[in-house]
Design a protein that fits this description.
Elements lengths: L30 H26 L14 H10 L5 E5 L3 H6 L4 H8 L23 E5 L4 H16 L5 E6 L6 H12 L4 E7 L2 E2 L2 E2 L21 E5 L3 H16 L5 E6 L17 H9 L2 H11 L4 H24 L23
Parallel strand pairs: 1-2, 1-3, 3-4, 4-8, 7-8
Antiparallel strand pairs: 5-6
């Protein structure tokens, strides 16, 4: 990937790798694992595309932040972690939620504000949470969840469970104080926290290269906290999986936290309200050509997987998304009496001293 830091106010053109690297090798990266990663990437992409269509039909309540083009990171980690591990995501968390095994129907229903939604239709796009699946929330406040992930990691360390907490965040969060506080705290107390920067090159509407003194906003700062910074091709799910396994194994063995920076790219704007016209057209076109799903599809074919087998997986995912969409649209809105529920931990709304 080529990068030149521009004068402030000018947009750089950041191009993806010229060709996909050879398929990485890892003891746990067998065919079944690769097919699981392939399926999960398809689930994320097709869910996001469906949510986009529903948004255009004015059925999605509020805005949404899609991760089309960024599926490899969430899919690889979703397959790499254990069911009892913890995941924390940003407001761009639909993909991480489905990657942790949450079915599509409650996700879609939540986006539509239905009573059958993951949070009863009251949380919406930016707050998807399913504790049962280890998905400990999507957070709209930039960087806030990194410190919360440390709390989960500390709990696991105290209980001696060897669980890990994986915190996903965007490149813009690396210039937020909470990022540095969280990484420092995790390093000092050797917490099993894995910090994963999904560097899609833009912090909302501004190129991260314009406002950051280092080339890799997360990885290049790792040394300040005594950690090794890992930079990985975030569009290559196998490469992300290998990096994830290394960090997870280290954390489980008591080796403390890790920082992984996965370079990727969102195909659309920051949110559905953003046309993304601030990005150079040639950059957008190049990254769309370097699509993580197409890359992984070709790799599996090169590894001898038959096209019919891959097509069958895609067909199954499409059918599941279609059925989930129909069920979500038909579901009722929350009942009026649900308004004052789930405000506090006891499920009610009364203030307690």
């Amino acid at each position: 990937m080529s990068r030149v830091r521009p004068p402030y106010g000018e947009h750089p053109v950041v191009l993806p790798p010229g060709a996909a690297a050879p398929a990485p090798e890892h003891p746990r990266l067998d065919l079944d694992t690769r097919l699981a990663i392939f399926r999960t990437q398809q689930e994320i992409r097709l869910l996001e595309k469906r949510l986009y269509d529903l948004f255009l039909q004015n059925l999605v309540k509020g805005t949404s932040h899609l991760a089309i083009g960024m599926e490899a990171v969430g899919a690889a980690f979703g397959v790499a972690v254990r069911p009892d591990d913890y995941s924390f995501a940003t407001y761009r968390g639909h993909g991480h939620t489905i990657a942790r095994g949450v079915p599509p129907e409650p996700i879609i229903a939540e986006m539509l504000g239905r009573a059958t939604g993951l949070l009863g239709g009251k949380g919406g796009s930016m707050h998807l949470t399913s504790v049962r699946h280890g998905m400990m929330g999507s957070y709209a406040i930039i960087g806030a969840h990194l410190c919360i992930a440390n709390g989960a990691a500390w709990s696991a360390k105290v209980r001696g469970t060897d669980q890990v907490a994986v915190a996903f965040f965007g490149d813009g969060a690396t210039n937020i104080g909470a990022f540095h506080e969280a990484v420092n705290f995790a390093a000092v107390y050797e917490l099993p926290t894995i910090f994963v920067c999904e560097n899609n090159l833009y912090m909302e509407y501004t190129s991260i290269a314009q406002v950051t003194a280092v080339d890799h906003p997360a990885a290049d700062r790792a040394a300040a906290y005594g950690l090794d910074g890992v930079v990985v091709d975030g569009n290559d799910a196998d490469a992300v999986f290998v990096a994830a396994c290394a960090a997870i194994d280290r954390a489980r063995a008591g080796g403390g936290p890790s920082i992984i920076e996965a370079t990727t790219y969102r195909h659309g704007g920051h949110s559905r309200a953003d046309p993304g016209t601030y990005r150079p057209a040639e950059e957008v076109a190049a990254w769309k050509e370097y699509d993580p799903l197409a890359l992984y599809h070709r790799r599996l074919l090169d590894l001898g997987v038959e096209e019919a087998r891959l097509a069958a997986i895609v067909h199954e995912v499409v059918e599941a998304i279609d059925a989930a969409t129909e069920a979500a649209i038909a579901a009722p809105p929350p009942a009026p009496e649900a308004l004052l529920t789930n405000v506090w931990a006891d499920g009610g709304s009364a203030w307690r001293n």
